[in-house]
Amino acid sequence: MRDHFSDQRKDGVLHVVLHIVAHRVLDRRGVQVLLDALVPIHTHERGDGRLPRRRDLALALHFCQDRRMIFGVSPTKDAVVIAQTTGSGETFVIKSITSIQFQARSGDDLTGLLRRLVALFEPAGKRRRSTIALLGSSSGRFKSSIEAIKAEAITEVAAAESGLLVVRVTAASLKRILGCAPGQKWQARAGERFNPTGRHKDWSKGAAGAAAAALEVAGKTP
Fold it and tell me: What is the DSSP string of the chain?
């Protein structure tokens, strides 16, 4: 019987995520509906003894040492990259970059990603002073992969479950916020601005997107 319900939960996750993939954009009501569908899964996962990884707990504690922060989040094909930032404008600082690797082949994969994201976001959500700057999926010539779109949807669920506000950022706006030169790609400009000396050893295109999204939201958040 337990296996039967477990299979139902996995199918439910896939159904919900595929619904989001079809629509691509969630409004506030959509997030709540999605949250209602996934809360039982998350609660069961916490109750079966499988706690978040020790590294995730340490990162969550580190994230919560600052009362006011912005999580820049960039979902990619195989990872959700999170930049923890503080300040704005000239005082903007990246305090850490975390890359959560994932696969999106089954309900277990997606619920595992949800569990790890909540482990990071939930402590910050209790302070009600943090915001998630979510770099949204792209369309057209450089459209995002289906895996990235699924990860974006799960990130929104994790944010809602953790009580964090999500502000969506489009890739089209990043050239302006970063002050790109004519013809310069925003990814290159982000590297120049945020990692000129290579201090962030795990720098990547995902990290560039997460940091740039956080910078834009930081300039709009009091």
Answer: -HHHHHHHHHHHHHHHHHHHHHH----HHHHHHHHHHHHHHHHHHHHTT-PPPHHHHHHHHHHTTSSSEEEEEEE-SSEEEEEEEE--GGG-EEEEEEEEE---SSHHHHHHHHHHHHHHHHHHHTTT-EEEEEEPPP-GGGPPPHHHHHHHHHHHHHHHHHT-EEEEE-GGGHHHHHTPPTT--HHHHHHHHH-TT---TT--HHHHHHHHHHHHHHTT--
Alpha-carbon distance of 204 to 16, in angstroms, equals 30
Instruction: Please give the model's pTM, rounded to 2 decimal places.
Output: 0.71
What pLDDT does residue 142 have? Answer: 61
Domain boundaries, the chain: 2-218
How far apart CA 2 and CA 33 sit, in angstroms, is 25
Q: What rounded mean pLDDT belongs to the chain?
A: 77
| Rounded Cα gap, residues 174 and 172, in angstroms | 6
Amino acid symbol at 111: T
Q: Does 3.30.420.60 match the CATH number of domain 2-218? A: no
pLDDT digits (tens, 9 = 90+) for 61-87: 444 444 578 999 999 999 999 999 999
Instruction: Compute the distance between CA of residue 59 and CA of residue 37 in angstroms, rounded to an integer.
Output: 27
Q: Tell me, what's the pLDDT at 72?
A: 97
